[in-house]
Amino acid sequence: MRRTTTGMTLCAAAAAAVLLTGCGSDAPEPAADNGKPAASQSAGASTPAAKTGGASHEVTLEVGGTGKTAVMYSGVGSGFEQQALPWTKSGTVELTAAEQKVGYLVNVVPGTVTRADGKLQQAPCVIKVDGKKVAESDGVTSTKGCSYTIK
Known about the structure:
Elements: H1 2-21, E1 55-63, E2 68-74, E3 78-84, E4 87-95, H2 97-102, E5 104-110, E6 112-114, E7 120-122, E8 125-129, E9 132-137, E10 146-150
Antiparallel strand pairs: 1-4, 1-8, 2-3, 2-5, 5-10, 6-7, 8-9
């Protein structure tokens, strides 16, 4: 019985070692011996170089008001930080062929500001793509912030 248990333990350890060998490695695959890149380095991989040749758009995120508020944004970088108002973030977005087909989400969600009457409201926001206003919130009639899908 003791031999069977030890043998089974060794078998289980060997099986676990074989299964775990390919798991958890963040290192890139080495190039194949034939000089061609490995599968993870192929042209179809999502890399900054793969985005070239796509549609390019200038995106501007704006949050109005005075004072300071928290601003969460994505699409032109991403962040969630306390910002002095008025706040603007601009950048160029290059879309891949897939993003041109399904869309690329850009959004900004501002925190609250104090109105003239002392009440709080969400700060107003605007998203512009290539200079054209595509989304806007006054912070009163809509409190979802601004969101737009670029195609």
